[in-house]
Design a protein that fits this description.
It is a single chain. This protein has 294 residues and is of the alpha/beta class. It is 55% helix and 13% strand. It is built from 9 helices and 5 strands, in the order H-H-E-H-E-H-H-E-H-H-E-E-H-H. It has helices at 2-25, 41-47, 73-90, 100-116, 129-135, 155-163, 166-172, 213-242, 249-291; strands spanning 58-59, 97-98, 140-150, 179-189, 192-204. The protein has a 5-stranded mixed sheet, sandwiched between helices. A hairpin with a 2-residue loop joins strand 4 (179-189) and strand 5 (192-204). Helix 1 (2-25) packs parallel to helix 9 (249-291). The chain starts with a helix and ends with a helix.
Amino acid sequence: MLRKNTTSIIVIIILFISIGYFLIKNNIISLPSLSNISFNLSNIEKNNGNQISDESITVTKENLLDTEGASSFKQFEDDVIDSTNRERLQAGLEPLKVQNLLYTSAHVKAFDMLTNQYFEHISPSGKGVSDLSKESGYDYLVIGENLALGEFDTADAVVKAWMNSSGHRANILNKNYSEIGVAMIRGTYENKPALFVVQHFGTPRSICPAISATLKKDIDEKNAALAQDEKTILTLKGEIEANKNLFSPEYISLVNKFNSLVEKYNTTLTESKALIANYNEQVRLFNNCLSSYQ
């Protein structure tokens, strides 16, 4: 009989300690929400002098570029890049590197303007430079665009026209850009012969520290498991409190399940907190890099 009483006391103490332990640890369940971590990449587009829709470059000359002369279309595009980089070097900036994906997006823009007969940063279908660069596969950190329409005999003439416009000049001399793609096509605009010239500037997202998508997935999975275990723990707690027979095998089984699940819960919680700390550090490093481009 004495041994039964002792067992009863031990079981009750274990129950109280377990419940108390859970209630204390339960305060940690409400971790900082990952949804509060935002990268705001869309803001970069708006804050870096892109989408210069308030001014356009149109230059008229008597003759179009003679493509049978020294400069082919491709050579003309290369010359625009060279002329642009000379302006950057004179300003003490690093030259831009040719990026094939930006070359692709620039050509898509040029052909779209010619085909649909418009001269705007935003197309009739609502697409801008950010949309075109993404479609070409360019994962950018910052992106920008210069457009020119008219009759130009040299690449220097195009770049000079841009440099005489404050908004376009700002893109050419923007220290935040590291890569460039240029397109030039010839056609007609408003029934007049003209050249469409497009510059796409960018800096790839890969220049900043990466944020692990796998790590985010692991955190989400652990938090989902914690949420499920929390429900089970609370259910077991209710069953234990409702069970008045403290000496029954069922009661002892419930207490054992409760204690085991609380131990598992707290282990998972510790692991989740460590992953979140790691993830938030990655976000911090990325945002620090991002802020230097704003």
